[in-house]
Amino acid sequence: MKREEDKSIKGYKDLQGIREDGKVYALGGMGADTTPQALVRVYEAEKDQWQPMTSMPTPRYGATPFVRGNKIYMMGGRQGKMPVTALEAFDLEMKSWTRYPCIPSRRAFSCCATNERSFFSLGGLQQPGPHNFYSRPHFVSTMEEYDLDQGFWPQ
């Protein structure tokens, strides 16, 4: 039996993947023309296919996905050569997105660590803002903390 090719994620590049509760989620990425995407798909093994879910509020690639509780967070990323500072979470039960305060610094390809009260944005590619054309992107060792109880990024 020939397996039919699934077209729901075909043609996309740099999708961010994360596994939670026995399911695989694909988020963001870029189209064949490098346009940032807001897509969210979940792989259903029983049907052997990807199913669409509610799109992200901010299209992007190069973001950092992580899971905390019943939410998949997407932090930072890029739209073309421009940094994205958005922090958003997809509630797996409600099937909806929530926006949080933006990350203080403009970085893509960062990593994330969490504890009971905070999560941390670590390192990544620091990019200049839209009005700083003479600065070049460079990798940094920046660490920023988001306080979950207070709902902000302490300085």
UniProtKB/TrEMBL annotation:
SUPFAM superfamilies listed in its UniProt record: Kelch motif
UniProt keyword list: Cell cycle, Cell division, Cytoplasm, Kelch repeat, Repeat
GO cellular component, one term: cytoplasm
GO biological process: mitotic cytokinetic process; mitotic nuclear division; nuclear chromosome segregation
Keyword Cell division: yes
Stretches of the chain forming a coiled coil according to its record: none
UniProt subcellular location: Cytoplasm; Midbody
Gene3D superfamilies with a match to the protein in the record: Kelch-type beta propeller (2.120.10.80)
Biological function: Involved in pinching off the separated nuclei at the cleavage furrow and in cytokinesis. Required for mitotic integrity and maintenance of chromosomal stability. Protects cells against mitotic errors, centrosomal amplification, micronucleus formation and aneuploidy. Plays a key role of midbody function involving abscission of the daughter cells during cytokinesis and appropriate chromosomal and nuclear segregation into the daughter cells.
Protein name: Kelch domain-containing protein 8B
Organism: Dissostichus eleginoides (Patagonian toothfish)
